[in-house]
Amino acid sequence: MNKYKRITLDGLIFQNPTLMLVLGTCPTLGLISSASSAAGMGLTVVLILTLSNMIISALKKVIPNEVRIPCYIVVIATLVTFARMLLEKFVPDLYDSLGGFLALIVVNCIILGRAEAFANKHTVLESAVDGIANGLGFTCALTVMGIVCEFLGSGSIFGLHIMNFSIGIFATPAGSFIIYGLSIALFVYIINLFEQNKRVKVNKLARENLLDKEAA
Amino acid sequence: MTVKQFFKSTAFKCIVTLLAILLICGVFLTVMYGFLEVSDEERFERAINKIYGKSVTTEAVVLDGKQTEFEYSSVLEAYKVIDDGNYLVKLSGKEGFGGNVECWVAVEMDGNSIEGIMKVAVDNAPGESYIGKVSQDALNSLAEKAEYGSEVMGGYTHGSKQPGSDYIATGASYSMRAISNCVNGAMEFVAKLTGGNGQ
Fold first, then answer.
1. Which of A102, A118, A134 is nearest to A23 (CA)?
2. What is the ipTM metric for this complex?
């Protein structure tokens, strides 16, 4: 499999930071009660994660191993501050809705985790692809859970009122926690089914090859 | 360790790298701040848009010589909206969660008497968490309930430690108390400014 395709599929599905690795839980629980906040947070993380991965990958030979973590934190904090400035200037509503969680991206373990686990061992291009894939994986997970929570909690999707129906708990972080848990269970179940089917196909193919060889 | 050895050591390399990265990041952010700074005028325009949904012409009220300090709030800025004669007052309300809460309060006027509160918008609430955020619906209903002459706003009385039943919204309770104080202060300020009791 092409390495870029593998990196992309890992970030989006097989190593999805939110649903498979259970990283970035704090913003997930705090923001998925609104689909638009969840999507906004996800896209901000895509930007910061991609840029931080690229910068850290480019500087990996310059930064001494002993001070790599402080250097990563400085780079990530700078990018988060830059993203805050951009959002405050051009998207003030999103800036207000994200509140303190925007500043907390500095300590988001997805970003530091990808820097440490991937960016400092791979090329700039691979790191950029990894940043985009993981960021989009995070965004998709948050947005889908946000849609479910917002619909159940206030009967609307992306602020658009759909029906007079609401279950109060889903508008709170407690409801988000329930939806998050159920989403992880469903996602892992689907991935397991997929991998089981894949294993069955591979075994079948191997058996057929063995029989062909024996017949020959 | 000699000086020469120090300059060749990993420790020196670490210090230089870290300082270089800090310097580059600092310069980058300073330059970006120059381009992306949100000016006071822009903030004011945003507050107006939050309340009116469009740009309106305003005239600043001179605060010198006027009472701006009230028991539970203080007036920071005030404007008269030329288009409809209403007043837009920015106040700092005391007893907020984690500190004072700054709010914009649009006081609706009918001539020289106060009709009520048109809208309330939070400008700055330092101790407010996302989870304990006061919703815009709560602010809107606070505006609906506001009536000049009453000091009980949104279920809170001054100095009360027990929030009213309407706005119990997790950690937002104390922010709501400060917002109520802003609304009370705005009505008191405008009533004194217009020279009457607002009735």
1. A134
2. 0.83
